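Appendix B. One record, verbatim.
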Amino acid sequence: MIATANLSPRMSHPDCSLLDMAEAVDVTRAGGKAAALARLAAAGFDVPAFFVIPPEAFEGATLSREARAAIADALTRIGSTAFAVRSSAIEEDGVENSHAGQFLSVLEVSPADVADASERVARSGFGASLTAYRQSRGLAAAGSGVAVIVQRLVPARAAGVAFSADPVSGRRDRIVVSATSGLADRLVGGEVDGDTYLLARDGRVVGRAEEARSLSETDLSKLAALAIAVEAASGSPQDIEWAFEGERLLLLQSRPITTPLRPLPQPDPLVTILDNSNIVESYPGLVSPLTYSFAQYVYGRVYRTFLGIVGVNPKVIAEHGCVLDNMLARHRGRVYYNLMSWYRLLALLPGFRLNRAHMETMMGVGEPLPRDIADSLAPPAATGLGRLREWSRVGWMASRLGVAALGLPRSIRSFETRLGSALARDRAELKSLPLTALAAEYRRIESRLLDHWDAPLVNDFLCMVAFGASRRMLERWAGAEGIALHNAMMIGQGDIVSAEPPRRIAEMGRLAAGNDTLIAALDAGDRTAAQSHPALARLIDAYVARFGDRCTEELKLESITLAEDPAPLLRSIAAAARVPHNMELREASHGSADLARVLAGRPLKRIVARMVLSWAKARVRDRENLRFERTRVFGHARQVFLAIGAEFVAHGVIEDARDVFFLTLPEVLGAIEGHGVSADLAGFVALRKDEAVRNGALPDPPERITLNGAAIVHNPPLAVDPAAARPVAGSEADRQRTGTGCSAGTLSGRARVVTDPRGMSLEPGEILVARHTDPGWIAVFANAAGIVVERGSLLSHSAIVAREMGIPCVVGLKGATSWLRTGDVIEIDGATGTVWITAYAD
């Protein structure tokens, strides 16, 4: 909206009653169209200068001699070389009856022809078409004449109409724009179709004709703002005519939309809060529909098992099936936790009503739920007999967990045996199975593993409790020194499976060291080059056989595994070969010596601390090892789905085997088992591929998203993390930040910011900087001197592996990948979590 500066001076001819823009607000003299324009001009909208010839200036449809003289005078004052001459009847552009198209409009009128054109417009008020229109609407016969608007003609580069609500669908949240290059008379008259755009009320284009090119994104944004502003000023949805004079947007006409519209959407009280601060380590970036639907199904199944383990009544579990089926959400292709569902799940656990604050911390997210929302979800605090009942539930859960803890080693062995049996089928055999057998293979895995995921669930829960309790205990007994001691005691396990890859890579690097030709071939991803070195070839084969399912983003079914593409492994071997080094894990005795020193003179506490820490270490070890078993399950599922994809291709259902990842689990199984709702799987694939491209072009949404009302109609603005702003090179304003220290040690070196580890390896001495990591990054970890990660916690994979490898690590450093650049010289303190920039990259 642009303030008007073109109001014509008051007409002063002694024998004339012409109305200037300021006077035209009187609808009885100026007519509906002119009155609406005058009010909008007075409100500050950019309306081209005009004056009005009232009906009394005509004798029938003929202008008086005095009126013609007054018109000539008014035209001189406006000073244009071309004019638009339009009607403005009293009832024209009304709320009920617009009279659209019933009166004549004449464009590109020279000053000498304005008077004659005005008479032609006036005569249109007596036509048969107008009489028929009014009769069809139940209106009285037309009055004695119409007012005529004479307005400066805008030399438009583009013009058209815009509706502040969709007049066809009735939607109030959409703006419809029809545009053409130049003047819009042929568009309004229906002679040309023009370009059609469908806009959201914030100006975003949500639909357009494929050939629409007459308006830019900036033009459309201005039009959306104008349509909304005119609607607000007029008090109802509007049909406006507009024109761009260069970059200047002018309002030519406005009238109410007369077609029925839907009522404005009412505020929806339902609030949903999404958070990915934890799950991003497992499911970073865009996640395929198949992975998401599979993960959603897995979460629902295994947490039903967990609630049963801790003693929640089966009837209560069944009543909360909707909550369990909505643990995850997918927003713009990214996976989030639905915190509302997690909170409701947490509230089912025994003890919640006794110590809500402590239980809330178990969600482990970066920030808690807003207090008012948490209050609305939480059951009332237990009082009286309710406290006794709640304590009995806690006792029952504790006894069940105690029994489970005592039998945990046996449960883990049983789980691993069951998993080995379930995954015993040779994967090469999968490629020869028909679709029904492949679906049966998936169902077998589902029933034998997902419904019996007891050992990992119990160990994860106990690990969380043991790790947190042991850390708080040492902090209470020894302060900051106790935290450092805890970090030291959590390393040196030796039998954590995630520590194997860097050790094996270092060994293979030593074998390749000094052989420049071999190193260059490995760096290029050429596995055949290792055949000239039998010992190295055997180690590579053994590594792929053991860790072939490991890859970047390994829980995403669509990820390419090392078994399919070993190039990331080969590049890491080449990097290790250039500067061979021994990969020695830290020994637990380092922490033991510190424990004796810190708790000297307190033998009882030292004994208790050693026992608690030993048990916590075992839970951390088993947690990491069981996560590897989870990787095997996902790896087997990946191969089943790829085999299904290949069969779909053979049957002409989809075009490429990997297109299966653009389908959901119910769609894939439904197509085989007969419960699918559509046979057009290729159509789903095409639709979702296009959606993935559009989502991939967007920046990552924020960690925390609040949705008001139904998710499908909500489009929250993209938040910009202030921590992500890059300081000006050389400035002192932002050289230091602090995250969570999780592996002690100080180090200075050059940063290497890695967004996709599949195509790069670190040079010795470089510090890995990443937004998030997962077990598939282990080949990159092998050559890192230190690690800095934006996301994660003390129990994240990067923290555990860094402690095992004995390298400093800082996690949870917000905006690290934007704050730091490759080549920056940084210093990190893995105990305090502090990172300094000591020199900026060139």
